Amino acid sequence: MKGYFAKSLIFIIVLSTGIVTGSFLALSRGVPRVEEIKEYRPATGTRVYADDDTLIGEFKVEKGIHVPISKVPEHLIRAVVAVEDAKFWLHEGVDYVAIIRALVRDIQAGRIKEGASTITQQLAKVVFLSPERTIVRKLKEATLAFRLENNLTKEEILELYLNKIYFGHGAYGVEMAARAHFGKPVSELVLSESALLAGLIKAPSRYTPYSNLTKAKERQLTVLKRMNAEGYITEAQVESTFEEPLYLTSAKYERDKPGYFLEHIRKYLEDRYGVEMIYKGGLKVHTSLNKKVQAAASEAMKQGLQKLDKRQGFRGPIGHKDIDVEKELQSLEDYKKVVIKKGDILTATVLRVSPESAMVKARGVTGLLYALDAKWARKLIDDKGNEIKRFKTLRLDQVLKPGDIIRVLVKETSTKETVFSLDQDPLAQGALVALEPATGYIRAIVGGYDFNKSEFNRAVSARRQAGSVFKPITYAAALDHGFTPASIVIDEPLLYESEEYGDWEPENYDEKYHGATRLREALQHSRNVATVKLLEELGVSNVIPFARSLGIQGPFPRNLTLGLGSLSITPLEITSAFSVFATGGIRMEPIVVKYILDSDGSVLESNRPHGDRAINAETAYLATSMLEDVVKKGTGWRAKALKRPVAGKTGTTNEYRDAWFVGYTTDLTTGVWVGFDSIQTLGKAETGSKAAAPIWVSFMQKALKEVTPYRSRNNQGEETEFEVPEGIVTAIIDPLTGLLATKESEKMVEFFKEGTVPTVYADALYRDILQRNKEELRAYRKKDKKKNKN
Predict the structure, then answer these.
(1) Rounded CA separation 384/390 (Å)
(2) Are 620 and 606 in contact (CB under 8 A)?
(3) Residue 577 CA neighbour count, 13 Å, CB half
(4) How far apart are CA 152 and CA 35, in angstroms?
């Protein structure tokens, strides 16, 4: 009997040993070895620099900005330890008491509910293991935690943890979190800020102060009380720290980055060097971006689209929730000092509403929204821009009710009561490209309203119908083929018949005909009929190769609609093409990357300004001269605000689906496009002059102060005109006929290429014929016209 029990005992011991050993080996699979842990180094990605050699972004597998633990304030370290792992300095990677407590609750819940992870275990999960919540993964986590504790100091573990943990809003690690929430490096944080950040680790989306300040403050208080319980701070410090104001940044961290520019760089590198090199090659990419110019571009686009959106109308609240007003107001009593900044755009809850005003709460701050600051909402529309209702006089209770979630702009904070104005996020998109004509350096790229909501880069990838912004290409091609700015075309009714496509009758925007029209005048006022007649005489076959010489890729429609911009182009294409006029006919290759260094500092790529002659200097200058008149006297009049020599052209496509303005000075060429991704109308009269040109002007007013001057001032410090090349002469002509002026005719000075000046004088009979023809055509009306909005 004794032998039987002895054998049974041995069998049980062997079996148990096998089970334990097998379990250990099974858990060890997929868990990094000690050597891997010691040798672990994050892959060195690619660092991207602006033209002043300052860092603007990184491409790497692991996100965040690494800081040594010596740069992390002691109060932040204590806050994190107190709330996440109070026994961190004592345990060996696993808190057994916490695990037993968590297991009991998990069994009661029937699922993995409570984590009970120490800081070391959290680090193991974040850096080395997958995030799934299973018993096996938790055991592997514990196994790796032991290895980490046995091979790294507590300080090394904490440094890794603080640099890897996620804090929400795209912020990985304490350095990025400090910049994202408070606009400062982690070393400058104060206790109240450290407590708020420490509280985010458990659930960043739930406790973010940007979405729910009440929960964020409650969580901050929890952290402060835990710090007190651990003896790190006194009760008096808990109370005083909780009362301190929170100076949150008005824009989240990721929004400060030139996202569209960086995405363009990333694709550039991927095409040339591959994904592996981008994220593990340690490249240093020096670009042409000017940070101040880029910031001006982003701000101009944002403000321009916001104004356009308000002209379209109010789409209503973005959401609704049932609220207890008294409870909402009571929740503010403990922290009235929370700071918000003038100009911030926030999500708010409507608490009370009357015809004249509404009480709203945003980021824990209550304030008033007056009907005067929401008058643009008199027009209610759906998401497609269709009008639902229009109020003659706006009463706020007609469009808002308690519990509505809306977007507001902080209008005033200096008075006793915070004042908000009604806002909404635009649905329309836009794009802006700015490059230096002399070098081809791309100084700014904006590919949409918000990169975080849409990464599609419309500046370089969206092919949209050009509309009238293509007309200068047609006119310049004509100047290259014997026409002059004084050449005459007759603006009169046209009909092109086609059994396949139906009849086509090009018409002017003003639905009038203007008779004899000089090319300068036709471009100045963007006349459609004159442009089509010019293209018919010139020939589509002469315009297409000319456009290609300017860098426009096509494909091109091989019919007369080309003259009205029926082709599709990208903003970068058309902006680069206009730059050829600015440089006197030299096409500079657009440059976004100046040079690239590999991990050893060797030059992988270097791109210096390089250009080839695309068109002759005389043609380029005449085109510029005509485009200057578009600004001085025509549809580009808004650009006169720069108070310096400017050439440019508006563009508007059918049904106001696309709005363009492309223009240049001697220093900078900029193209702006505005439209919907869904190719719907921007709204009645939303032309290039109204929707795109204001963005262009706003940007250029700031950007021109930052770019390196290029032939921009003479010796007296005055803005110079565009350079007149040799081979250009002037003559006094009669503006009605385009011929040489007589004593009886009106007079104007016109530019010509040598050898193309008219040799005939405008006699009275010819003038009378053209004048009568003009008057007859101006009086002409065609029934049931349909506008061709070009």
Answers:
(1) 16
(2) no
(3) 29
(4) 11
User: Which is it for strands 418-423 and 365-370: parallel, antiparallel or unpaired?
Assistant: parallel
Q: Write down the residue that tokens 């702009």 correspond to.
A: 409
84 noted as active-site residue: yes
Residue in 377, 328, 357 with CA at minimum distance from that of residue 419 = 357
Task: Give me 122's structure tokens.
Answer: 């959290």
- Measured distance CA(728)–CA(587) in Å, rounded: 20
Q: Work out whether strand 387-390 and strand 404-412 pair parallel, antiparallel, or are unpaired.
A: unpaired
Query: Distances from the Cα of 731 to the Cαs of 149, 756, 765, in angstroms?
Result: 88, 10, 22
Phi, psi of 459 (to 5 degrees): -65, -35
Contact, 559 vs 506, CB < 8 A?
Answer: no
- The token duo for 198 is 């420490």
Sheet of strand 284-287: strand arrangement? 55-59, 46-49, 284-287, 593-597, 603-606
> What backbone phi and psi angles, to 5 degrees, belong to 740?
-65, 140
Cβ atoms < 10 Å from Cβ of 536: 14
Residue 185: φ, ψ to 5°:
-70, 160
β-strand pairing of 319-320 with 603-606: unpaired
Give the pLDDT band (50/70/90) at residue 710.
very low
Inter-residue contact 675 to 448 (CB < 8 Å) = no
User: Helix, strand or coil for residue 101?
Assistant: helix
Structure tokens at 308: 């356009």
C-alpha–C-alpha distance, residues 734 and 307, integer Å: 43
Yes or no: say if 444 and 299 are a contact pair by the CB < 8 Å rule: no
* CB 196, CB 242: distance < 8 Å: no
Residue at 568: amino acid letter: S
What are 188-235's pLDDT values in tens digits? 999 999 999 999 999 998 998 887 788 899 999 999 999 999 999 999
For the full predicted model, state whether its pTM sits above 0.70.
Answer: yes
Report yes or no: 85 and 99 within 8 Å, Cβ to Cβ. Answer: no
| 3-class state of residue 32 by DSSP | coil
| Known active-site residue 468 | yes
**Helix extents (H) in 230-386:** 235-243, 259-273, 275-280, 291-312, 325-330
| d(C-alpha 700, C-alpha 431), whole Å | 14
Q: What is the mean pLDDT of the chain?
A: 86
Angle between helices 471-479 and 528-538 (to 10 degrees): 40
Q: Which residue in the list 194, 288, 468, 745 is annotated as catalytic?
A: 468
Question: In terms of residues, how long is the chain?
Answer: 790
